[in-house]
Every structure is written in C-alpha cells, then in structure tokens.
Write a structure and sequence with these properties.
Helices cover 28% and strands 28% of the residues. It has 316 residues and is α/β, with parallel strands linked by helices. The strands form 3 sheets. Strands 3, 5, 6, 7, 8, 15 and 16 form a 7-stranded mixed β-sheet that branches. Strands 11-10-9-12-13-14 form a 6-stranded parallel β-sheet. Strand 12, helix 8 and strand 13 form a beta-alpha-beta unit. Helix 4 packs across helix 5.
Amino acid sequence: MRAVQFDRYGSAAELCVSECDRPRPADDEVMIEVVAASVNPLDIRIRRGDLRFITGRKFPKRVGVDVCGRIVERGSKVTSLLLGDEVYALLPMLRGGALADYVCVAANEVCIKPRNIDFAQAASVPLAAMTAFQALHKQAMIRSGQTVLINGASGGVGHFAVQMAKNIGANVIAVSHSSSANFCKSIGADSIISYDREDCIERVQECDVFFDVAGSKSKSAVAPILSPGGQYLTTLPSITQMVFTNALNLFGNKKTRSVSVKRNASDLNAISNLIERKAVNPRVDRIFDVSEIKDAHLLAERGRIRGKIAVLVQAL
C-alpha cells in the first residue's frame, strides 16, 4: 500500500509517498480504507523536528492524525462496527499514519461519520474540533451570555471554536487577518477584529474567556481585559505556563488553562451530533491529492487558511 512518510526531519521536501506493507487489525481493531485525511499544525511541527525530544530519531515516520474512510476489515472481538461503515477517528498523535491507503484503529476510538458532510469535511474534524470542544466545554465550561474572544478565529481550531461558542449562546469576538473577516462573519462571529489593523487588547473592554489559538498573546497581556473570574486558554503554552499553571492559578481569580487535546470517542460523537444538527459546519479551504502532499504542507506553513486543508487518498 501507499503511505506518506519522511526519513529525516526537515522541510516539506522530505515528504514522499512510499510503498509499505498493509497492516492487519488486532482483535479489538478495525482496518479503515482511507478516503481522506487533513493537515494540522502538529503535522508540520513533527515533520520539522520541533518535537524530536518526544518523537525521537527512529525513521521512517508517517504523517497525519485525522482519518476518514470505510471499514474493510475488523478484528474478531469487534461487534459494534460493520464492514462498509463510513467512519472517522483521531489517531495517536505522535504515531500518525493517516495519510496511507489503510490504517488500523482501536474500534472504541472510531466514530460513524456524520451523514450530512463529505469525506474531505469529515477528515478536517477530529483534532481541530476536539481541541475546540474540550477547551470550551470541558476546560472553560463557557455559558450562554458570556463574552468569548477567539484569537486565530479563521483557522482549523478557531473556526470550530467560533461555531461551538455561538451554539452555547456566547457573544463571540473573532480575531483574524482582515482578509478573513467575511469568513469569520459567515461562521457566526458577533464582532470581528482584524489583527493587522488594530490590537484586540486595545479594542476589547472585557471578555470572560480569551481563547488564544494563534498563540500570539501572553496571559500578562490579556489579563487587563479579562473579567473577574475570567479565563485565558492557549493551545501554545510557554514552558513557564506548562510547568507552573496550577501554582499560578492559586493566586488571583483570573485563570490560565493550557489546552492539550485528549483522544475521546465520546467527544467526537458529541461533535458529530453538532454537525448533524448543523450547529457546526466544517469548512475546507483547499483539497489536495495525496500526490500533492508537499504542496499541502507548504500552504499550511504559509498560514491564513480559512478552516482546514484536506488531502484525498482515494478518489471520492
């Protein structure tokens, strides 16, 4: 079978489509024939070697954690899923391997694909949508009527966060580049701040939750506009935040929360429900063929993506 992998850390030029052995599912696994995957910032960081202290130096390494396709084989203990089921899942994030013809996944980590979206849209969901869902529902626990600012609102995590916050009933302030202002309006933002024209810290008087998806604002910079009991969430915490967050939260009533997604099929099923109710609409900016994976990574690195980048492994 084909699989995208790389033999050393570096630029997108290191990616190649190689022939590999087809996997076999364990007793509790299903084998998915992959139709589509997507590109996440995590994939870029792993490929460049930014996380080599975790990922190590054993090569080749495969890429992609969002997978969507059809079940073509199942282990002897799997009874909950059927051959031919259209499914999606989040793979172990440091192992990857979604960009391949076939991938094996534990059956209890696989969810049925929402019926009202296509494979490319579904492939854009798992990592980004679960990050937004867990941040807003489980960490910040936002409530109707609160003001939530999403910094980096037009990207993968951000565009899901805007829609989820609106579904809860929050007043949503979206911060994005001016070229993405109309996109942010189309996904439900109540007000939009273009970071290339004004500083959101100077524009906003107060917010209850500041979700820094872009990783461009520190807690100290945000603190003056956080309401009493307000929360600062970030997907890109500093080393200080990672080490001392719990200790820092003991002082004062403005909390810092580092967002790190956890693979959870129950959360993905909840997101599927939001999609099927049309409360959330996954948006795909560009679709590439797997043979164009280098171009897909280069576009992701340039940024200013509206939604996600999807990659087709099999023809739709």
